[in-house]
Amino acid sequence: MQEFRLDEHSEQFPVAMAYVPWQRFEGIYEDLEKAYCIGTIFPELNKPFTGGRCV
Amino acid sequence: MNNKDQMLRDIGIVGFTVTELALYLDTHPHDRNAIEYFNHYNRIKTQLEKEFSKKYFPIRVDLAESNQEWRWGAAPLPWEGVCG
Amino acid sequence: MWSYERRLEFPVNIKEPNAQLAQAIISQYGGPDGEMGASMRYLSQKFATPYKEVAGLLNDIGTEELAHLEMMGAIVYQLTRNLSMDEIEKSGFDKYYVDHTLGIWPQAAGGIPFNACEFQSKGDIITDLFEDMAAEQKARSTYDNILRLVKDCPDVAAPIKFLREREVVHFQRFGEALRITQDKLDAKNFYAFNPGFDRCEDCGCKK
Predict the structure, then answer these.
(1) Could you give the number of structural domains in chain B?
(2) Best to test chain C binding among B23, B28, B57, B71 (most C CBs inside 10 Å)
(3) How close C202 gets to chain B, by Cα (Å)?
(4) Quick check: is B81 in a domain?
(5) CB of C160 within 8 A of CB of C194?
(6) Contact A36 C10 (CB under 8 A)
(7) Helical packing angle, C154-184 and C52-79, nearest 10°
(8) What is residue C82's DSSP assignment?
(9) Would you call C167 an interface residue with chain B, using a CB distance cutoff of 8 Å?
(10) In terms of residue numbers, what domain contains B42?
(11) Contacts of C50 (CB under 8 A, 6+ apart)
(12) pLDDT digit string (tens) for C67-121?
């Protein structure tokens, strides 16, 4: 997991606020029917629920 | 799946793709790549809706031109599911 | 204004009714973190939003939430379709049935009716966006809870998985709207004034 240390960017991201990273367009699922069943056309936003800690 | 159900599913899939791209563009209004994708899929959606509405039942009220019977009213209710 | 497309955003085809499940799932129809709250929240907040792009996003997401509300209504309706009196009595659904028969009425699983106290429209864009991001997470958590209940019901799990993923995407969009808002304000102090209310003393303009 990439470590993102906010204090390296403290000018860009002042304290007492929250920041969501920008999504960059990197293409969509080729199989749109699969995307439909998942609930997003963007692979980077696919965050499924597994219901268990050790998968 | 019969032709009608397949076409309705295709409208669902393309319609969803258009919705997703529209929300992305709401926060990325200058993303030319996304704009191209939106224009492309939106054209497909519009075309599918026109064809479907002519052949089966109107999917929007502005596609409900009727003759002897009001086609919009006669269209199935989407929340009925398999038993509908 | 609104148009209607004669289809659900994602299909709902539940072959077997299940009154017990319906009682829990109804929370996403009219409960505190459900789709009625989501749509009313965003469609209410849009008016006092000072930035056009953010107001547009609230409107578009609010519109999609109405489609989700319809899906949740369809799920509860199909789960309680054609129930026998025996099934109604045995499942505990009798408490709802006595007031609504098999009608769909917005309430939480615990019985609290839908009400505007379940959302806020603060008239402060930063506050409203944090409310929205929290709302999407609350809805996602509720869908996680429902998914645990419907592991053996693929007919129900499919639309619920779709709805849950939409919450994740909406969270990202509201986060981006917050970034847009931050860019329009002074990073030295985002909270110096409410851009939707406080005016410049000289010019009388708000934005």
Answers:
(1) 1
(2) B23
(3) 32
(4) no
(5) no
(6) yes
(7) 170
(8) T
(9) no
(10) 3-75
(11) C125, C195, C196, C206, C207
(12) 999 999 999 999 999 999 999 999 999 999 999 999 999 999 999 999 999 999 9
CA atoms within 13 A on the CB side of C180: 23
Instruction: Report the Cα C196 to chain-centroid distance in Å.
Output: 24
Q: Which residue of C has its CA nearest to B59?
A: C6
Examine the predicted complex and report whether its ipTM is higher than 0.90. Answer: yes
- Inter-chain CB proximity B27 and C53 less than 8 Å: yes
Partners of residue B14 in chain A, C-beta under 8 Å: 32
CATH architecture assignment, domain C19-184: Up-down Bundle (1.20)
Answer whether residue B49 is part of any domain: yes
Contact A22 C179 (CB under 8 A): yes
Report CB contact under 8 Å: B81, C74.
yes
Please name the residue ranges forming H helices in chain C.
19-25, 27-30, 35-45, 52-79, 85-91, 94-100, 125-149, 154-184
> A35 vs chain C: nearest CA distance in angstroms?
10
**Encoded tokens for B5:** 């159900």
Task: Return the residue matching tokens 């009925």.
Answer: B80
Q: Does the model's pTM come out above 0.90?
A: yes
